[in-house]
Write a structure and sequence with these properties.
Rossmann fold, six-stranded mixed β-sheet, DNA-binding, about 20% strand, alpha+beta, seven-stranded antiparallel β-sheet, flat, single chain, Topoisomerase I, domain 3, Topo_IA, 18 strands
DNA sequence: GCAAGGTC
């Protein structure tokens, strides 16, 4: 038998070939400098048996959508025609050499064995590969490998247990491709042409619409608007201070603060009339600081900027590199629960040699191990991100690579250890009718915090001893004054959280959409001004054009506004339904296009809303 | 000159 294996990228082809070939493979060049063909023999067992294998790869998607040439003119083709225009799916220019390679290699193969990543897009890429292979050999039979990391035993198990391509997942992707392409073209063309015509300053600009770009912009404008609208409000609070055992204790008012000065004065008056404060409750209770959940891509892209000061996009790129070199598991995962059958002990044992966290890992193996927490997400394709092999700093190309590897490893070890534990004392006092409280914390066991150095949990100052019903004359009872502070502009982790919560983009593309709205000059990134903890943090503000687009579309029809996340979120839900076999591709495409025909009609008839807003923000003020 | 999703 001759088997053609095709992976989603060269690095996987190379890794799998070296595992299955036992290090004995022959490498042939192809017309693409990124892709090689690896030849070796392998006994797959079962129906396949001993085979001549060629392992090769694509580079992600092979095909792209396009309209036939008669639709390519922006000015002479009415946009609404694109709702019904035929869409061609053809091999993209960049992928042509890869398609040729697959066609040629398939011509004398009995089986095509697909090794694309096991996720929705991977199933679709599998069907792209399969179509190309069949155009070179109509009798070729297709199998699909089920794997989610590059561990030797896992790959061998996958090789011996092929399954079929998942047609439902591939259909969901086909629906997304068609909808994104049509809607992107239709709305980009109408708004670009109309706005270019009306504003000199936009003459050379493409005002693109994308179902992910616009909601991303919407989040930035939304926060900006709240900052704009903010008016500080004065508030008053009562501070109660005691002096005992050479310690000063400040108690916090249960009402926290009031926005009426007179009311605050009345409350203070009552306290003062009472003259003494009385201890009404002393509680001592254990306090737990929970260890983190298993690591997902979204968490990684949020914590990269936060803990490591590496941008979301860079963090992901580095994680991808660590993955393709076999140091960490697949970095694009939504799963925050480890499979119960997973051998965590072996993964931990690979870390015991590390000078920094080796001892911690050893201690986990000799009794400190605790089962990881389970989050609520499972994509059924990839486990949470975790280290596969130990690596030293010298073996990595940069300091940032080391930071990311270290973070992934420390996070994993933290997941496998115990929560941090402490004891909390809460003292409640009453003066007149007003209640106050203060608490003290003693950290007893750091546990996971010993390895997860990114979080801090410190004991507070020890409270002096208070007994129930103690009475004391406070050293000080007075009113303090303050004002509410403005919300701040969106940071990258905040924006990613919003996109994630609303299903805008995938874990792997959120960082790219954030770049796109900056490239289109809808949004600017800048350093936060001022003093304090947030100073120097990167934050996003909309440009005049960004604000004008959002306000214009909101005015056209708030319920359906393209800048709101609802439409995309709904589409994501529908795609999941197709994956589950509960809906079909054609139904989703038809229903969605019908919705968007209405949105398009509204946009066209009320375009003056956009023009007016652009006039206001681009020329006015 | 248009999207979003893969990947280099």
């Amino acid at each position: 038998m001759r088997i053609l294996c095709v992976a989603e990228k060269n690095s996987i082809a190379k890794s799998v070939a070296s595992i299955l070939g036992g290090g004995h493979f022959r490498r042939r060049d192809t017309k693409s400098k990124y892709i090689k063909n690896y030849d070796f023999d392998y006994d797959f067992g079962g129906q396949l048996g001993d085979c001549n294998v060629t392992m090769t790869a694509v580079s992600g998607h092979l095909t792209e959508a396009s309209f036939p040439p008669e639709y390519s003119s922006w000015s002479s083709v009415p946009q609404e025609v694109l709702f019904d225009a035929q869409i061609r799916i053809s091999v993209s220019k960049n992928s042509a050499p890869l398609a040729d390679n697959i066609r040629r290699e398939a011509s004398n193969a009995d089986y095509l064995y697909i090794w694309t990543d096991c996720d929705r897009e991977g199933e679709y890429i599998g069907t792209e590969i399969s179509n190309v292979a069949r155009s070179g050999n109509s009798r070729i039979r297709v199998l699909r490998a089920d794997f989610n990391n590059l561990e030797r035993t896992h790959i061998i198990r996958a090789a011996r247990n092929p399954r079929n391509l998942n047609q439902w997942a591939a259909d969901a992707v086909a629906a997304r491709i068609e909808l994104d392409f049509r809607l992107g073209a239709i709305f980009t063309r109408i708004q670009t042409l109309q706005l270019q015509k009306a504003f000199e300053i936009l003459k050379k600009r493409v005002i693109s619409y994308g179902p992910c770009q616009f909601p991303t912009l919407g989040f930035v404008v939304d926060r900006w608007q709240r900052v704009e609208d903010f008016l500080p409000e004065q508030f008053w609070s009562i501070k109660l201070q005691d002096r005992r055992q050479a310690k000063t204790v400040t108690f916090n008012w249960k009402r926290n603060r009031v926005f009426d000065h007179l009311a605050a004065l009345v409350y203070l008056e009552r306290c003062l009339e009472a003259k003494v404060a009385k201890v009404t409750n002393v509680v001592q209770k254990p306090k737990t600081k929970y260890k983190p959940l298993p690591l997902t891509t979204v968490e990684l892209t949020k914590l990269g900027p936060k803990f490591l000061r590496i941008s979301a996009k860079k963090t992901l790129e580095i994680a991808e590199h660590l993955y393709t070199n076999g140091f960490v598991s697949y970095p694009r995962t939504e799963t925050d629960q480890f499979d119960p059958g997973m051998d965590l002990q072996t993964l931990i044992s690979k870390q015991t040699s590390d000078p920094s966290w080796g001892t911690f890992a050893s201690d986990l193996l000799s009794g400190n191990f605790r089962n990881p927490r389970s989050g609520s997400h499972n994509d059924k394709a990839h486990p949470p991100i975790h280290p596969i092999a130990h690596v030293t700093q010298n073996a990595l190309p940069s300091q940032d690579h080391w930071k990311v590897y270290q973070f992934i490893t420390r996070r994993f070890l933290a997941c496998c250890s115990d929560h941090a534990r402490g004891a909390e004392t809460i003292v409640e006092v009453t003066m007149g009718d007003e209640q106050f409280s203060q608490s003290g914390l003693t950290v007893l066991e750091h546990n996971y915090l010993d390895v997860y150095i990114y979080e801090k949990w410190n004991s507070s100052a020890q409270l002096p001893v208070y007994e129930m019903n103690d009475e004391f004359v406070p050293r000080q009872v007075n009113i303090i004054e303050g004002a509410t502070t403005s919300p701040t502009y969106l940071t990258e982790p905040e924006l990613i959280s919003l996109m994630d919560a609303n299903g805008i983009g995938t874990d792997a593309t959120m960082a790219e959409h954030i770049e796109k709205v900056q490239e289109r000059e809808y949004v600017l990134k800048r350093k936060r001004k001022g003093k304090g903890s947030g100073a120097g943090v990167s934050e996003f503000v909309p440009t005049s054009l960004g604000v004008a687009l959002v306000k214009g579309y909101d005015e056209i029809g708030l319920e359906w506004s393209l800048t709101k996340p609802f439409l995309r979120r709904e589409m994501e839900v529908q795609l999941k339904n197709i994956e589950k076999g509960q809906s079909s591709k054609n139904v989703l495409v038809e229903v969605t296009l019908t919705q968007f025909r209405d949105v398009f009609h509204l946009t066209k008839t009320r375009f003056e809303c956009l023009l007016r807003r652009c006039k206001e923000y681009l020329e006015g003020q």
